[in-house]
Structure formats: structure tokens, C-alpha cells
Automatic annotation (TrEMBL), chain A:
Lineage: Bacteria, Pseudomonadati, Bacteroidota, Cytophagia, Cytophagales
Regions crossing the membrane: 101-121, 358-382, 415-436, 456-477, 498-522, 752-773, 793-817, 837-858
Pfam families membership: FtsX, MacB_PCD
Source organism per UniProt: Xanthocytophaga agilis
Keywords assigned: Cell membrane, Membrane, Transmembrane, Transmembrane helix
Positions of the ABC3 transporter permease C-terminal domain: 368-482, 752-855
GO cellular component: a single term: plasma membrane
Full protein name: Permease prefix domain 2-containing transporter
Superkingdom in the source lineage: Bacteria
Main localization of the protein described in the UniProt heading: membrane
Molecular function per GO: transmembrane transporter activity
InterPro entries assigned: ABC3_permease_C, MacB_PCD, Macrolide_Exporter_MacB, Permease_put_prefix
Residue span(s) of domain MacB-like periplasmic core: 100-312, 513-677
TrEMBL record, chain B:
Record InterPro entries: Metal_resp_DNA-bind_regulator, Tscrpt_reg_PadR_N, WH-like_DNA-bd_sf, WH_DNA-bd_sf
PANTHER family from the UniProt entry: PADR-FAMILY TRANSCRIPTIONAL REGULATOR, TRANSCRIPTIONAL REGULATOR RV3488
Chain ranges of the Transcription regulator PadR N-terminal domain: 19-89
Classification of source organism: Bacteria, Pseudomonadati, Bacteroidota, Cytophagia, Cytophagales
The organism's place on the tree of life at top rank: Bacteria
Pfam families registered for this protein in UniProt: PadR
Protein name: PadR family transcriptional regulator
Length: 872, 112
């Protein structure tokens, strides 16, 4: 008989792999027969071609599936099956109490974190979004300055037809306000043009705010301020006294502004009021950065037109100046979208401290990481648990369950768990909220969670976690061969093992990343809080000077200071224009005679009295302090940096000029460089002028011990000297710490979330160790019988986990180094990253891992081998 | 009035099953089809059509016994069901009726 010829193997393989099982046999046979037939009639090549074509014609999607005759119906959604699934899920949950608890706890913690962080991020992104025209409002600024000059607004609106309206704000800051009925309080406000009503869409409640803001000595107040000072009385026409001297009349009431904004105010004083303070030539000064200018455009896209024509505008606005300088200025001009200001603007003299988009990114990253860790945990635990149910899957399959049904069953279980976790998470969130608000300095209320978009976030997270963690086990388990899953105890397949190990490594990458980042950020914060600043910030009370008290203090400084110094706990009283870290005046200072063609950077100027340097313990390097014995109004003290910049070898006695204020004088002293701004910035050249009558802040150095009594004394004495004065004070060190508020907040939050991440990882590890212990009980029993010691067993048991944790650490190191290094670039003064932090993270994670698995480890190793070996 | 629509290819294959009378399975059907009509169809077309005919109830199938030829793989034999033969007869009858209605001259022009 002739040897039967065979069709090409690959095509045959293709057929066996992809053709539906129930018709495979017959089709194989048919095609084989056809091949023989063609082979004999037309030769090998033709037969092969036809065979291949025919094979392809019976592969999906071309082939039609044969449906089994008399197959049972497979309802996917049947109530009784659902009831059964639910029952099984519940039984499994209760049977494995520890697992379920870890699963739920880990996931709930993760979702709680996610919720808090989402709210935080949402809040950060919500700035200015409540202003109806927010996409059409831009702030006129340049690359350095957030402020602009007084005449700019008027000229811009004439030049650009795209501008619908333009308004200016000048700072008034926080002011002490008195009513005629002697109600007293503090309120925040600005001077503003009447166009502010249109640009910011202020809603009038009483009176006409547009008209009011065009009148001198007029203010408009918000509804809540009206209630605070006047209660139910009609506020219109009432007099308010600011800082005990400026009297303004309420002309209109506006609706409170809702939502977050960088421009917070309780009242707006009219711009004509501001004109009273300054001479008219200042108002046409194009170089005076007096306030913030906001434009409202007709159309958001018009901003490009404005930017394109900025050069032309500058040429006409600054006509007469040097052309290169104008072009340079035009180059730096910016129109900032108002919505960018909170997160993306960090210019000189911002309205208030802004946040940074970097922190939003960090928080998003942390949120995603924590959520992923929680999911990974859940996947791990859910899979291990589900693997134990191979028998159940086998039985279900034998009884005719289809794969879809099994997938739905397991997905449903994971959703049941995630929904439960979601509910627990909401409870945890409500518990955590007060602490969170305390740390982050926010005012989020618990009810915010009920807002539909927030509920949507929770639902989204539950869906995300449920799908992510349910899909894998669902498909993995439903694929089991019923026969093999019914046969005895089969250990889980190696692919699942590998996946689980990978996930553990991943978790520890995240955990050690967070540990390293937290420690390094903490070190940086420590640097901020403890760096030698060049002055002594401890035990200094800073009080704001205003009104009658300020007048009296300027008239008879001696008398009042002596009165205060009667208390032995008061050491020195100094005065200065600014607190440390406040934006000091920026002025131009040059040596006289000036070197031709040399440019000098601008100086910061601080006006002080003769006691300021003492009170702040700022050491003099050379020369003398200001003194009442000399007529020092034309004397200067400079810092070392200033001396260097001015090129003064022997600064004492040198003549310099403050060209901004047009004062010439001699340098009488040099102080050591001290950090009069936050550590984000380099020390700048500083000029100290003797102007006790200009100062706005009193610096009272007090002795430690019995601080409350000293404060009471100060308060009472000031009250005696100037009745009706609100003694508003703060401690300098608190104020300095406040300069790093956003970093401090971030550091605290990060600390919290990294602890959570570690806890969640450990929950996972704990569950897994329990699982491994269970699987290896018998092995350990045998080893024990054969003479293994406890330490042997612990070693065998834990070395696998230790390896995983170490691998996780090693992967995390470069990532953490890179990320923290990027963050540190933000700061002028920063820590060096030292290697011991990395070792620390390894040691900490290892210890935590060992403690976590140690329990199971020792429990298993100590158990009587007889028990474990007898069961079968 | 036919109850089920029978496509042209389905009709052909159904006829082949009838012709083969118990000997119809994938190979014989496609070979017969090719012999008698000259149409070379891919095997998948024949296979799918047979399955579809079975779903419609025109044919029934059973697996034959294992033989040593074709590596011991069983054949699936197709036989005409009552419904199938009825369907074929219906088609035939309908055709006859329609033929009767064609006026002789209309055919002659085309036929010659």
C-alpha cells in the first residue's frame, strides 16, 4: 500500500488550534480525505494550496459554530443563580475572616486616601472657576512682576479694541475696622476701579457699586461684612473707620464671592480714595508697580491678538524711552490667564502666596500610587483566595456552568467587596476629615461627599478597583480545566505565582519610594525650620502698628517704649516696615559717584528704628547702628551682599544714593547677611534706612517663661496708652514657619500617605504570608520531623519574601533619587541627598516585612508536625 | 407558499444530500457538487451550509463509526429530513408551476 501523504503540518496545527472543538474531528478527517483526493489528481502543490485555502475557510471568523442539540439554556441573569452566587460569596467572606478583613481594610484605606486626595486636588484646581468670565480674564504681568503701573490700564483699553473692560487693584491688606457703634474687627480689602464690577461680575445687593467705586472716600462691602459690622441695620451711608484714622462711607453692598480665589476681599475701596494718598505725578508714573491690572476680553482667543500687538503697544506707551529697553520690556510682558495664577504664578509681589502645580502633580502621583497598591493587594489576596476554590469551579463546570457565568460570578464577588470597601471608605473619610482639614488648613465639610460629582468619583474608583482586581482572577480561574481542578490538591500554577511576586515587588517599590521621598522632604523641611537665618526668630512678638497707637508711638517713642519696658520680661522693642518674609520695597540704589555704564540690581529696602537690629539680634559686621544721637535720616546700613554688589571695599563712610526715593547718604554700618526673605530665595542686597515714623510693625523681644502674662501686660499697656486699639500680634517664628506652609502641608500629607501605603502593603504581605504558610505547612512539618531547627525553618520561610522586598527597594532607589532631586531644584537652599536614606528605607521595609510575616512564620514552625501531616 | 426560504446554494447542497442518499458527508458533497455543477467551493462554504441546513431542520446528521482510513477520525453523515424533502419538493413544484406560466415564444427567443 502506498504511504499516505500528509498535508502541511503548520496548516494542520492552525486548524487544531482555532477550529471549534465540536466539529474539529470531522473537519480534520474531511480535509485530510480531500487532500489525498487532490494529491492524486493534481499533484502535491495544487493539493497543498487547496488544503491551506480550505483550512482558512474553516477558521474563525469564517466558520459557523455548531450548536449542541438539546443544550440546556444558560441564563446569565437568573435570580436564583444570583442568590446562589451571593450566598457563596458571603460564605467565603465569612469562612476566611482574616482574608476578608485585610482585603476590605486595605481597599477601604486606599479608597479613603484617593477620596481625600481627589478633593484636595479638585480644590486646588478650582481657583477662580466660580467667576463667570474666568476664561476671558487675564492679568497683565511680566516675567518678574505681577504688578503694573497706574496709567497702563487706561492706555491699554484705548489701544486694544479686544478688551471689553479693564480694572486695577491696589493692596490695602488686612485692616482694623471700627464702626461708629464701636464694633471692631479685621477685614481684608483692596482699592479697585469701578470696572471691577463688570470684570468680576460682582452682584449688587444694595446701592450701585459701579457708581460707588467712582466716588472718593467710598467703599462697597460684601453681604457677610455688612452682617458682621451692622447686623440688621441698613449699611448704606454708614461710616467705617479704618486703622483708626481713614474714614470711608459704605455706598453699596455686594454678594459674597463664592469659590476659591487668589483675590479674597471683604470690601473694596474706591480708586479715587487711593488718589488722595499719592500726588498726581505718581499716578502717571509708568515705572511704579502700584497694583494688579486685570483685563476682560471680548473673546478668550483674543489674547493671542493682544500678545501679538504688545510690542506696538509698548512702543506707544513708553514712547520717548530707549527703543531697546522698550522692546526688552515688551518681550517680558505676559497676559496670565486668571485661572493659572494660583498654581502657575510665582512672581514678585503676588496678591498672596500661591500654590504650585508641582504639588498638584505630586498629589496626583501619590493618589494613583496608593490606589494601585491597594488594588495590587486586592488582586493578590483575591487570587490566592480564589485559587482555593478550584474545586468549586470544577463542580460548577461539570454541572454545566459556562465560562461567562463564572466570570460574572467572580467579577460580582470582587464588586461586592469593592462596594463594601467604598462604603467603609466613606465612613473612614468622614472620620479622617477633621484631621485632614487641620493638617491641610482647609475647610472641607463632610457633606461635600454627597455632591453628585464627588459621589461619581467614589463610584468611579469602586468601578476601577473592582474591574481591575476582579478581571484577572475571574478569567484566570474560569479557565481551569474541570477535570484537573477536581483532581486532588493541585498547587497554583507558576504563572500566577510569578504574577504575585511581581506585584509584591511593585508594592515595595512604591512603599520604599514613598519612605525615601518622605524622609528627604522631612530633611528639607528641617533645613527650612532650623537653618541659621542670621537673626534670632525666637521669643519675638510682632505687633501691627496702626491708627492712634501708631501716631502716639511716633510722637513719643521713648515714653511708650519705657512704659512697655517696665515689665522685666520685655527685653527690647524695635520697629520696622516689614516682617521677615514680607515683600519688601524694591528700589534702585547706586554708589555715588556712579561708575559709568555699570548696571546695579535693585535693592530691597527696609525702614527701621534704632532698636530693630538689637531686637532681632542681627549682628553688625562693621560700623555702627543707627542712633538718636546722630541725625541719621541720611544714613544707611547695608548688608554684606549689598557692599559686594556696590563694589565697596571699605563701605563705612561711602556715599550711596537711593535713586528711587532720591536720597543721598553715607553708609554708617554693615550687617551680616541675614535671610529677610524665605529660603526659597537667595539673599538679596538690602538697604536699611532710619525712618522710625514709617514703620508699621513693632518687634518685641521677650524673655522665655510666663509668656501669657507678658502678652497680657503688653495688651493692657497698649490699651491704656491708646484705648480702642486692637492689639494684633503674632510670633515671628510662627510667621517664618508660615513661609513654608505649602511645603509643610505637603510634607505632612505625604508622611501620612506613605504610612498608609506601607500599612496597605503590609496588609497584603500578611495575607500572602498566611497563604504561603498554609500551602507549605506539610513541607515544614516534614522538615521538622527530619530535624530542621526553628531558625532553619524561619530562614527557609522568609528568605523568599526578603528577596522580593530587597528587589523592590533596589528598583525604588533611582526613581526616588530622581524625583526628589527634581523637587529640590525648586529651592535655593537645599539638602544633599545622602546614601543612608536609601539604606534606611531598605532596613525599614525589611523590618516591617519581617514583623509582618514573622507571625505566620513562627506559628507554622512551632506547630506540631503531627497535626499538619495527619490531615489529608 | 414556502415556509422557509431556501437559498440557491442551500438548494444545491440539499439536493446533493438527497442524491447521495446516506453517503453524504463533507467530502462527497463537495466532490459531487464540483462534478455536477463545475463549481469549486471552499470547504468552509460547504461545511457552513450543511450546519445552516441542519439548524433549519432540513437535514439531520450523525457521526459514523471510526475507521482506520483518515486516521480513525469519524465522518459526519447528513440525511434528508422530512422537512428537507418537503422543501425540495416545494421548490420543484413551484418551479413547474412557474414554467407552465411562461408563454412559449418568450422562451424560444432566448433559447435559440
Amino acid at each position: 500500500m502506498k504511504q499516505p501523504t500528509t498535508p502541511p503540518r503548520w496548516a494542520y496545527k492552525l486548524l487544531t488550534w482555532f477550529h471549534p472543538d465540536d466539529t474539529l474531528e470531522e473537519v480534520e478527517g474531511d480535509l485530510d480525505e480531500m487532500y489525498q483526493y487532490w494529491y492524486q489528481r493534481e499533484g502535491k502543490t495544487r493539493a497543498t494550496i487547496r488544503y491551506v485555502i480550505d483550512v482558512i475557510s474553516v477558521l474563525p471568523p469564517f466558520v459557523r459554530k455548531r450548536h449542541k442539540k438539546n443544550a440546556y439554556p444558560h441564563p446569565i441573569f437568573s435570580l436564583s443563580m444570583f442568590r446562589n452566587y451571593f450566598k457563596i460569596a458571603l460564605r467565603n467572606l465569612l469562612k476566611q475572616k482574616a482574608y476578608s478583613l485585610f482585603n476590605l481594610l486595605g481597599l477601604s484605606l486606599g479608597i479613603t486616601c484617593g477620596l481625600l486626595l481627589t478633593l484636595h486636588i479638585k480644590e486646588e484646581l478650582s481657583y477662580e472657576k466660580n467667576i463667570p468670565n474666568h476664561n476671558r480674564i487675564f492679568r497683565v504681568a511680566n516675567t518678574e512682576w505681577s504688578k503694573s503701573s497706574p496709567p497702563l490700564a487706561g492706555e491699554m483699553i484705548k489701544f486694544f479694541p479686544e478688551i471689553k473692560s479693564i480694572t486695577r487693584f491696589a493692596s490695602l491688606g488686612t485692616q482694623v475696622v471700627n464702626t461708629e457703634d464701636d464694633k471692631q474687627g479685621e477685614s481684608v480689602g483692596f482699592f479697585a476701579d469701578s470696572t471691577v464690577v463688570e470684570v468680576f461680575d460682582l452682584q449688587p445687593v444694595l446701592g450701585n457699586p459701579v457708581k460707588a467705586l467712582a466716588e472718593p472716600s467710598a467703599i462697597i462691602i460684601t453681604r457677610s461684612m455688612a452682617e458682621k459690622y451692622f447686623g440688621s441695620k441698613d449699611p448704606i451711608g454708614q461710616k467705617l473707620t479704618f486703622e483708626n484714622k481713614e474714614e470711608l462711607w459704605v455706598r453699596a453692598v455686594i454678594e459674597d464671592r463664592t469659590g476659591n480665589t487668589h483675590l479674597k476681599f471683604d470690601y473694596l475701596a474706591s480708586m479715587p480714595t487711593f488718589y488722595n494718598y499719592v500726588s498726581t505725578d505718581w499716578l502717571t508714573n509708568k515705572g511704579w508697580m502700584f497694583g494688579w491690572t486685570y483685563v476682560l476680553l471680548n473673546h478668550p482667543e483674543d489674547v493671542h491678538k493682544l500678545e501679538a500687538r504688545m510690542k506696538d503697544f509698548y512702543l506707544s506707551f513708553y514712547a520717548g524711552d530707549k527703543k531697546e529697553e522698550i522692546l526688552k520690556a515688551a518681550e517680558s510682558a505676559r497676559l496670565q490667564p486668571i485661572t493659572d495664577i494660583h498654581l502657575k504664578s510665582n512672581l514678585i509681589q503676588e496678591v498672596g502666596p500661591n500654590s504650585s502645580i508641582l504639588y498638584v502633580y505630586i498629589f496626583i502621583a501619590v493618589e494613583v500610587l496608593v490606589l494601585i497598591i491597594a488594588c495590587v493587594n486586592f488582586i493578590n489576596l483575591f487570587t490566592t483566595q480564589a485559587l482555593k476554590r478550584m474545586k468549586e469551579v470544577g463542580v460548577r463546570k461539570v454541572l454545566g456552568a459556562r465560562k461567562v457565568q463564572l466570570v460574572i460570578q467572580f467579577l460580582g464577588e470582587s464588586f461586592l467587596l469593592t462596594c463594601l470597601s467604598g462604603t467603609i471608605a466613606i465612613v473612614l473619610y468622614l472620620i479622617a476629615l477633621p484631621f485632614y482639614n487641620h493638617i491641610s488648613g482647609r475647610q472641607i465639610t463632610g457633606w461635600e461627599i454627597i455632591q453628585p460629582d464627588n459621589l461619581l468619583i467614589v463610584a468611579g474608583m469602586v468601578l476601577f478597583v473592582g474591574l481591575l482586581s476582579g478581571l484577572f482572577p475571574a478569567f484566570f480561574i474560569s479557565n481551569f480545566e474541570p477535570v484537573s481542578s477536581l483532581k486532588a490538591n493541585k498547587t497554583p500554577r507558576s504563572s500566577a505565582q510569578f504574577l504575585r511576586k511581581g506585584l509584591i515587588v511593585f508594592q515595595f517599590v512604591v512603599a520604599s519610594f514613598l519612605i525615601i521621598a518622605t524622609v528627604l522632604i522631612y530633611q528639607q523641611m528641617y533645613l527650612f525650620n532650623n537653618k541659621q537665618l542670621g537673626f534670632d526668630k525666637e521669643q519675638i512678638v510682632v505687633a501691627k502698628l496702626y491708627g492712634k497707637f501708631k501716631e502716639k508711638l511716633i510722637l513719643n517713642p521713648e515714653v511708650i517704649q519705657n512704659e512697655l519696658l517696665k515689665n522685666p520680661n520685655v527685653v527690647t522693642i524695635g520697629k520696622a516696615t516689614n516682617r521677615i518674609g514680607d515683600d519688601a520695597s524694591v528700589e534702585s540704589v547706586v554708589p555715588s559717584p556712579q561708575e559709568p555704564d555699570k548696571e546695579y540690581p535693585s535693592f530691597r529696602v527696609l525702614r527701621i528704628d534704632e532698636n530693630y537690629l538689637n531686637a532681632m539680634s542681627i549682628p553688625l559686621k562693621a560700623g555702627r547702628n543707627f542712633s538718636r544721637e546722630f541725625s541719621d535720616s541720611a544714613s544707611f546700613i547695608i548688608n554684606e551682599k549689598a557692599a559686594k554688589i556696590l563694589g565697596l571695599k571699605d563701605p563705612i563712610g561711602a556715599t550711596i544714593t537711593n535713586t528711587t526715593m532720591n536720597i543721598q547718604g553715607k553708609v554708617v554700618g554693615v550687617v551680616k547677611d541675614f535671610h529677610f526673605v524665605s529660603l526659597h530665595n537667595q539673599i538679596e542686597p538690602l538697604l536699611l534706612e532710619y525712618r522710625p515714623w514709617w514703620t508699621g510693625n513693632m518687634f518685641i523681644k521677650i524673655k522665655p517663661g510666663n509668656v501669657p502674662a507678658t502678652l497680657d501686660f503688653l495688651k493692657n499697656t497698649i490699651q491704656k496708652i491708646a484705648p480702642g486699639t486692637l492689639f494684633k500680634y503674632g510670633f515671628l517664628d510662627d510667621h517664618v514657619a508660615g513661609l513654608y506652609k505649602k511645603e509643610n502641608t505637603m510634607s505632612t500629607l505625604l508622611k501620612l500617605f506613605s504610612i498608609l501605603a506601607i500599612v496597605i502593603s503590609c496588609l497584603g504581605l500578611f495575607g500572602l504570608a498566611a497563604h504561603t504558610a498554609e500551602i507549605r505547612t506539610k513541607e515544614i512539618g516534614i522538615r521538622k520531623i527530619l530535624g530542621a531547627t526553628l531558625s532553619n525553618l524561619v530562614k527557609i520561610f522568609s528568605q523568599e519574601f526578603i528577596l522580593l522586598v530587597l528587589i523592590g527597594n533596589i528598583i525604588a532607589w533611582p526613581l526616588a533619587w530622581y524625583a526628589v532631586n527634581r523637587w529640590l531644584q525648586e529651592f535655593t537652599y537645599r539638602i544633599d541627598i545622602s546614601w543612608d536614606v536609601f539604606v534606611l528605607s531598605a532596613v525599614v521595609t525589611l523590618c516591617i516585612a519581617l514583623v509582618t510575616i514573622g507571625y505566620h512564620c513562627i506559628k507554622t514552625a512551632l506547630s506540631n508536625p503531627v497535626n499538619s501531616l495527619r490531615t489529608e | 407558499m414556502r415556509r422557509t426560504y431556501l437559498g440557491e446554494l442551500e438548494e444545491m447542497i440539499l439536493l446533493m444530500v438527497a442524491i447521495l442518499d446516506g453517503e453524504a458527508y463533507g467530502v462527497t458533497v463537495s466532490q459531487q457538487l464540483e462534478q455536477h455543477t463545475g463549481r469549486q467551493l471552499t470547504f468552509g462554504t460547504v461545511h457552513n451550509t450543511l450546519i445552516r441546513l441542519e439548524e433549519k431542520g432540513f437535514v439531520a446528521s450523525h457521526l459514523g463509526g471510526a475507521t482506520t482510513e483518515r486516521g480513525g477520525r469519524r465522518k459526519r453523515f447528513f440525511t434528508l429530513t422530512a422537512l428537507g424533502s418537503r422543501a425540495l419538493q416545494d421548490v420543484q413544484e413551484l418551479r413547474n408551476q412557474l414554467w407552465q406560466m411562461v408563454p412559449p415564444h418568450a422562451l424560444q427567443v432566448n433559447g435559440l
